[in-house]
Amino acid sequence: MNSLMQVFKKLGLFLNRERFNRELEEEMTFHREEAEKRLVAEGMTAAEAHFAAKRQFGNEANLRDDSYQVTTLWFESVFQDFRFGLRKLRKDPGFAATAILILTLGIGASVGIFSFVDAALIRSLPYQAPSRLAWIPTRHNS
């Protein structure tokens, strides 16, 4: 039941992604500003407190990424990876052509080999009782 609730929660975050991002930014700003106020109250200058609070808070991009990883559904990352791949292929057409050619050759070879193995080894012969067929060697006199 708990995992089902998590799925619904993540689905809600997916549907309200902009609101989540805005609330996350507000939350991070609030905590950073509170740390700055505490450091100023301890005797630091405003500039020193600002940089010290940023150091204490950590890398904001990593924190955003961590929160995103926790709240995303699996297909969102797949979709992002797919879009990233398309952007890279569009950016470098030579690489795109090479990648497509290699994929085409690999898929074609795999299909060809499987078709041969399927026809020769997997499927039974087109006779009524193929297991009863026997090979009878003959000698040819010439």
Q: What is this entry, summarized?
A:
Helices cover 78% and strands 0% of the residues. With 142 residues, the protein is mainly α.
Give the helix/strand layout.
Elements: H1 2-15, H2 17-41, H3 46-57, H4 60-71, H5 74-91, H6 93-122
Helix pairs in contact: 2-3
Describe this structure in words.
The protein has helices at 2-15, 17-41, 46-57, 60-71, 74-91, 93-122. By secondary structure, the protein is mainly α. The protein has a domain at 2-73. The longest helix has 30 residues, at 93-122. The termini are far apart. The model has no long low-confidence stretch (mean pLDDT 82).
Shape: elongated
Q: Residue ranges: pLDDT <50 for 5 or more in a row?
A: none
Radius of gyration: 32 Å
Helix run count: 6
Strand fraction band? under 5%
Properties at a glance:
142 residues, mainly alpha
